[in-house]
Amino acid sequence: MNYEIFKSVPQGSDGAQEAENRRIKEIADELSRLCGIYETQSGVGKTNVNSFETEQRIAEQMAKSQGFWIPMMEIFNLGIPGPSGHENDTYVADKGIYKVNNLLNNGSIVSLLQKILLHNTIFPDTAYSFYGFAGFDGRTVQPVLFQPRIANAKPASQIMIDTYMAALGFEKGSEEGHFFNGDYEAWDLLPRNVLVDSEGDIFVVDAEIKQT
Q1: CA geometry: angle at 144 spanning 14 and 194, to 5°?
Q2: Secondary structure percentages of the chain, helix, strand, coil, to 5
Q3: Of the four listed, 3, 20, 36, 133, which is most buried by Cβ atoms within 10 Å?
Q4: Element (H, E) at 32
Q5: CA angle 6, 10, 141 (to 5 degrees)
Q6: How do residues 115-167 score in pLDDT, each as one tens digit?
């Protein structure tokens, strides 16, 4: 594994985002690989591969060895505390928002990073980058993601969201904010997670996504 790819990629072009997506995938793949090795060496059955505690400790070791560990006491250095939700605590900086994810919706770091890659594929205008892992030594590890801020924006109406998703080739599901096409299923696309700017452009800042 070439750990150079774990270094943060400066953003500002489609090529840069593609590189960042490759970096996120490399981190997810390497974390999954190391968890598998640990479980095999420990004699644990395959059904327990990538268990939460194993993943947490390996993520902490990886972050510390590669320079993207953030002690939880330093998390306020990211920016001004913003709104907190079920899944994320947010910290607002000049150019974007840092989201510290508690994994309640995803259950594992690997699953979260895989979902982020799906988001970046479907909604590149609000693509995430990976910033690091935050936590207390030997305790819970929380991924930190960065997303650019959308200037002069407000929550989009559900009609705007439905129209936008239709333009992307998605059909409406049975529940509000739920959409699907031949490749993906996306939900929680509600006004609290979708913005519209002063020019009428739509930006999905958060959504639940899976491949079908």
Answers
A1: 60
A2: 40, 25, 35
A3: 133
A4: helix 14-41
A5: 45
A6: 999 999 999 999 999 999 999 999 999 999 999 999 899 999 999 999 999 99
